[in-house]
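Run folding on both entries below.
>entry_1
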Amino acid sequence: MRRAGLLSVMLLVSAAQSVVAQPPAATGPALGVAAAPRLNFTAREMALAQAAAATPDLAAYYGSNGLQPIFMGPQAAERRTGLLEAVGTAPAHGIPSGRYPSMDLAADATDIAAEIDQARILVRYLRDMTGGMIRPSSVDPLIKREVRRPAIPGLIRDFAQAPDPRRFLLDLQPRHPAYLALQRALSGGQALSVPAGLPRAPEGLWRVGMRGEGVAPLRARLDSIGFAAPSADPLSYDAALSKAVARYQAAVGLPPDGIAGPKTLRHLNGDVSDDSRSRAIIVALERMRWMASEDLDARHVWVNIPEYTARIVENGAEVFRTRVVVGHTDPDRQTPEFSDEIEFVVPNPRWNVPRSIAVKEYLPQLQANRYAVSQLDVVDGNGNVIARDRIDFGRYNASNFPYRIRQKPSDDNALGLVKFMFPNPWNIYLHDTPTKHLFGNAVRAYSHGCIRIADPFDLAYNLLSKQTENPQAMFRRALDTGRESWIRITPAVPVHLVYFTAFPNADGTIQRFEDVYGRDAMLYDAIQKAGLDS
């Protein structure tokens, strides 16, 4: 493998330095004369090529630049110092400091080994900042996110040519306001720690309308960490104090109900470790690096699975929000993470039951009673409805069931009255639902993986608003036909199905959500292991 890599480096150098010479124009067309490929290399160049061959990004870079070093020679001192300072900021990004081996700035400036060691650190830093440390699917196969980072050899070239190498590296980090807010929250991790010496808030339960001596220390502890609620009566648990408690609860990952109960008081009194908050922020920073190539200021739909919320963001600001129901916690029903584009609004959708649901849930019911689930049609491969008395359901099992199951458009259709399509290999989409009562629950993980929308008509109007002056009328005309119809969204709207248990709200305050699928815990472990893999 190393010999093959070395050969490829030499071929790249040869190709890069083979030029076409054009003699002066004469009476006829000029003839290109190919220069002979370069075949001779110095001992230093051979050593550099051999050392770089094991790292594809370095092999490509050195092969394309004639085996010119990055960190050798006194002229490269600024690059070495810039790289050292950049990797020193790793903890501020939630990247373990052990991720990057220590650098010896006093190393011999002609030492090939030092050149390659430093170049490998550079490659690791470039990759980490432009697409994260961890390959998403290695954490959980349901993290389908595709990381699109710039070509690393090109970034190495830009670094080598940069007037200020340090600034070039520092400017690689994501600049989205959410990333910067997460960084600030990580560096200010003690901001939610109440100063020592303040009286404890007494145990109990406080809600609006209550009054007592225990409210005063509760107010004082909240005020000391930025959740002030001024009041003429410091002993009254009034509406302003309830709102301050709710903001604090959201910041520490508790349901923001504004009631100061036992869990809230334990957090406020410092009886609960804040490690979980820091871990959630570290994981969120990595997830943001996965999405570094996405334009998150442009118009898009953002579905945060642990938050049970979907929103439309435009020019960096939220313009629409609705509650959602996401996939159940069972491994085969969880909602995957990925990005796509919503292409269609589909009023009066048919529900083509996924085969996994058809054979696991409906086939056993049909075997017990052929007339069960009467709202569903059994159809053949051509889409023809087959009378149930013509089918011996007992003959079939999950592997040989030859039919499909489908539900006609109706108010009782499992998809409700509209779905939002972004065709993908996992058959995931957003849709209405007749089961509205579930949106009142705090935990909303009930579906088979698709996302149910609490306000689907309003979502449709928003998505169609860029292509018509009256999106309500456009949608209603199609809906009133009672037939399934596909309205193309122009232009298509990016949709991001994401999983953040810590994320800033509009004012930069970090909100916390439960790790409903346990993915954050797995990703945090992977990040810590990446810090040992140096």
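>entry_2
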Amino acid sequence: MPELPEVHTLLEELKNEKIIGQSIIKANVYWPRSIAIPTVEEFSKIILNKKILGLSRRGKYLIINLNDNYDLMIHLRMSGRLILSTNEPEELTYIRLSLILNDSRQLNFHDTRKFGRCYLVKSNSNFFEKLGPEPLDSTFTPSLLQKMLQKKSRGLKPLLLDQSFIAGLGNIYVDEALWDAKLHPLRKSNTLSKNEVTQLHTSIQHVLNRGLQSGGTTLGTGRSNFYRLSGEKGNHQSLLKVFRQTGKECPRCNHIIERIKVAQRSTHICRNCQKI
């Protein structure tokens, strides 16, 4: 699933492609369930001739800011990706939505597993009211994280995956951050010392920035994997320390990395470094 670094990579690439200022002259919806809000009929009517005023991100949502106070929110979920093309795709099998721009380019929402969703809502809606803070925002400080952790008594991994707690983290970057901080994924959140919280804060930001700088994580070669707007793979997979490194030696202590289940999620740890 694309997480904060992958979505932000697409955001920056779309900005570089100068789609801001373009108008959407047509929307082709190939999989109606990809449009979560509003109905497909309303979506097609409202988005017609809307001008793209800006691009932003909130958590794992890519936001296309439109005129008339509308925002198009795209959540890629498990296998979604965006493709910007100069002509109609030859293969429409996995294209769920195409936005035709006035310069004839098409922004295509490609989704093999059909879990991705698009939401067209008013800009002043409360759509994001339940999302937690942005982990790379200046307001997300170690002291804030400590207060947040102290209010909960949950295992660290399930808590960090909860988008109402912190927005944008997923399985990849939570495993990497907990390994970097030497914290077990089942450690109770309210048992961390001040120094451990500070290290966790540092580790979260470190692995996210590493993912951003390397263009996101592409874990395989199949259609369901993350690809950049250009179709190229991200490069962060070569920098992973524990995620999907089962059976390899820990880069820090040479102990064998194991895969366990935490809250029904595959989780990768070094038992020597990450003691509970």
